[in-house]
Structures are given as structure tokens and as C-alpha cells.
Amino acid sequence: MADIKRPQMKPHVEAIHAYVPGKSKSSDGRALVKLSANENPLGTSPLALDALGRTGKPSDYPDPDATALREAIANAHGLDPARIVCGTGSGELLGYAVQAFAGVGDEVLFSRFSFSLYPLLPLKVGAKGVMADNRDFAADVEALLDKVGPATRVVLLDNPNNPTGAYLPRGEVVRLHAGLPADVLLVVDQAYAEYLPDGVDDGGFALAGKYDNVLVTRTFSKAYGLAAERIGWATGAPDLIGALNRLRGPFNVTTSGQRAAIAALADQGFVRDSCEHNALARASFVSAIDALGNHGLRAVPSEANFVLVLFEGGVSAESAMHAIAEAGYAVRHLPGQGLPHALRITVGTAGQMAEIADTLRRLCEGGK
User: Fold this and answer.
1) For the whole model, what pTM was predicted?
2) Shared-domain flag, residues 138 and 239
3) Is residue 77 domain-shared with residue 182, that is, in the same domain?
4) pLDDT (tens digit, 9 = 90+) per residue, 299-332?
């Protein structure tokens, strides 16, 4: 029988696996409280919700340049709106950064245990992903710089890191940038930056404002509680912003999303409340995990809105995930990221975190 002719997928595209979202149902179909996607447990600012209710004319296209939103972002962060581009989540902009500057024969560098999207981005353009060793679940500047070679075109750094929550301080980010060739793009992915303590800053904005090879990305999905609207943004040198504008869709951020993001920026009280709640609930949960250290449980220090719990004793991460699901919660198991012994647990309400901690305690002590 003759071979059937059909379009042939490019090998580098065929190597990409589809994104697997965090579970929201148990194996028997029960709805679970989703603490697997790092969403804001306080929801969304009332101002942003009100803006979403005033969608304007659905028949009209949104502002293709998100002009008012870029101006609001610039005012909030002391940036130049001309050096800002908005996207359908920061993930879209990360993809365009790789697409614009890497291709077949090039390399895209990132740390082990980085954001799960990073290994997929070079595959989409036929480039090679290169993974550097980390140190204590955080990016290791020396290891990254050791991997830089003639084919390196982009370095991706999530700071704070997802899924570990680790944070690379300003001096280390500056040192990483200083060690890169001027024609290598450093992308600092600050999706969780709002959760850092007051006054803590990795210096990404300053680098992006001074150098031609630094791009910083942020999102409204986490602390601002607008994950459903898919709004991200990036800032960098004019040539970098120009490259992303060439690749993005002309109407990529909806009218409702633009309005909601502007309103969310105006409600910094909600962001502060979200971050204060996160810090308190996270600290309490980490203390509860520390108390189970004699059973082999360990929490990786986190500056984000989740905690990576390591299971290094008699209780496995998989059995813990099932016990937590029985208690009514979905968390993230990470064997695909080289962490089969870990669960990433989003910080929910204080009561939710106490219930998960109690579930783990009973599991460790052999109870039910």
C-alpha cells in the first residue's frame, strides 16, 4: 500500500509536548481546591472586577498598542511607556523574545528547575535548550556563565524562580549580566516580583533601562489576580521592544483586560493585602513543614506565592499528593521537571494551609 501523503510536522515542533495544567479534579472526579496554579487566594481587586463589568463595545477592536495600559504601567514603575510592550500573558512575550533572537543552530540557556515553559521555547524555533546546574534550588551564576558559548543567544532567568521559589539577589543578577557577551539577550522573568519584601529588587529594571541586551517581563496573573484575562508586559531597550512588537498579534490584549489591568494598578492596597497575606500564610505553613523535618519533609525557602516541599524520608511526594487530594486539594507534582520527590503547593488561605499541613502531619505519623 502506497504511503499516504500528508503535511509533515517539523521535527523540532514534534518534540514539543503540550502544556499540562495543574489538576483541579481528583481521580474519582471530585472538584478540588486548586492550589496547583499559583493563583491569588484573595481573588481580584474590586476595582478591577468593576472595570471588567464595563467592557465597552464588544464589536470594536481593542487599542492595538494598549496605550493607556502602558502609560499606567510606566507611571507605577517609573518607566518609559515607549519601552513597554503588552502581551497575552508574559509567557507570550517570553516566546517572542526567544523567537526574535534565536533559531536553528542557536542555544537558549536556563537553569535546572526553571519555569517549565523554558525548555519548550527553543524547540519552537529549532534552537537548542541548554540547562545549567543550580545551587540549592536557585540559579547558579557561575554555572550559567560556564555554559555560555558562541551559539548562546538568549539566557532565561525566572526570579523568583518557579517552581522552587528561590530568589537571586541584585548583586548576582548584575554579575550574571556583566559576564554575558553584549550580543546575548538576558531575559529576567519577574512573574512573582510583587511578592518580594518591600525594598527588595533584583535590579532588572535598572539593567533594562541601561543596556541593550536586557528584557524584563512581568504579569498581572499572580498578585494582581487577573490570570483569566492573560495580561503580561515587558520592558527593555527600544530595539528589543520593537522586535516583540513585530511578532505579537495586533490586538493581543482585550479591551476588558486592558481596563482591568489599569484598574488593578490603581488598587495597590489590594496588592499589598495579597502580599501580606501570602507572607504570613507562607511562613506559618513553612513552620509546620519544618516541624515534620524528622519525617524527611523540607520546605525550600520561597519568595513567591507557593512553597516547594521536598519528601526525602519514608513518605513519598506521590503518596502525599494523594492524601492532600483526599482532603480536597490539588497541588503540583513535578516529576517532569526532575523533581519526583517534590510538591509545589500554592499558598491559599490560612485555613487551607493549616488543613494541608495537618494532612501531611497525620500522613507522616501513620494516621488517616
Assistant:
1) 0.93
2) yes
3) yes
4) 999 999 999 999 999 999 999 999 999 999 999 9
